[in-house]
Amino acid sequence: MINHKITLLAIAATALAIPAAAQQQSTTDILMMVITVIAIASIIYTYHLTQTEKGLEHKAAELKKIIDKQRAEISQNQTLLAQQSRQLSKDVDSRVEDEIRKAEKLAQPKKQNTDPIRMEYWGKIEKMSAPASSINTQKMLVEKKDLETLIEITKKKYLERELDEKAFGEIIGGYQRRLIEIESKLGKQA
What we know:
The chain contains five helices and no strands. The protein has 190 residues and is mainly alpha-helical. Helix 1 packs antiparallel against helix 2 (27-107) and helix 4 packs antiparallel against helix 5 (165-189).
């Protein structure tokens, strides 16, 4: 761009100088001046072309270096991403297993007190205070409420992506089977 401006400036200066020189100098002098201006313009144009070609070659080499560097960075990032993905998968699997264990513990019926003296004592009190069917009904209602709570917790964990679809289906299926059993027993008692 600068070289074009210099060329145009030289031609304009010559064009302005020719009429003034024509009045004072001979035709040969004017012809020499025109030839000099054309020579200068051609030298500037040639210089511009060579610089442009070298400049383009230099820019192409720089761009190739940048592209190679970016390809190397992309390769490193892909490797790092694969490693992080594997680690994340392991972390998620271990979390899911932990949650499944917790849910299974909650789904198991609570252990009764194993002390025989206390069991006998509380058994006598329960028998005196309420009929057997009432006690069973109360236990089933408590268990039903617990199962409904577990189902809600499991749904929440699934929606928060803490459980995968397979684990969610297995856990919910177990809870729902037990819930149906309890509801059918409660329906028979009613």
